[in-house]
């Protein structure tokens, strides 16, 4: 199988590292070679956080170059737009509709861009936009929006749900597993 590339993008504190662990566990369970690389960009101050996940028969580097990503999973709308140039032709974006103002917007030096989803679709990008924050709150915690998005992604990948459930069990602390299972189920139902 040719190597596939997934980018998980968001803002510090949104749970991209847990999402990459869940995804990596699922891919390992399917017998793929998997490489994961985390890039932190001032994550404690609301900066971009990017995680690269590559999988296939043989993977030599975890880094995803411009025009190489098959899928971008975005926890914040502006981050989806920021990284769209990394998609290959025919690539897909799964994004939360959540918006978090970056520092230039907070200070009044810039305005938050409008119509991001429409602009991405105008670029012929297949975009699945989900109100992951509301679904996560329904599951019991806004912090579970990352797992909601994993539920959405799980429906787009041809792996049995049981593999995803096993990955949740292995990656999520036991005291939060029930809430995260609910968040995952709500994402799968989208």
CATH superfamily assignment?
A: Pyruvate-ferredoxin oxidoreductase, PFOR, domain III
Number of helices: 8
Category by helix and strand content: alpha/beta
What's the CATH C level? Alpha Beta
CATH 2nd-level architecture: 3-Layer(aba) Sandwich
Let me know the average pLDDT.
Answer: 92
Q: Which fold does the CATH topology refer to? A: Pyruvate-ferredoxin Oxidoreductase, domain 3
Number of domains: 1
What's the end-to-end separation, in Å? Answer: 29 Å
Secondary structure: helix percent: 25-40%
Q: Runs with pLDDT <50, length 5+?
A: none
**Gyration radius from CA atoms, angstroms:** 16 Å
Model description:
The chain has 190 residues and is α/β, with parallel strands linked by helices. The protein has one domain (4-188): Pyruvate-ferredoxin oxidoreductase, PFOR, domain III (Pyruvate-ferredoxin Oxidoreductase, domain 3). It is built from 8 helices and 6 strands, in the order βαβββαβααβαααα. The protein has helices at residues 16-29, 77-83, 103-106, 116-122, 132-139, 145-156, 161-171, 177-188, and strands at residues 4-11, 33-40, 48-56, 69-74, 87-96, 126-130. A 6-stranded mixed β-sheet has the order 2-3-1-4-5-6, with helices on both faces. The longest helix has 14 residues, at 16-29. The radius of gyration is 16 Å and the shape is globular.
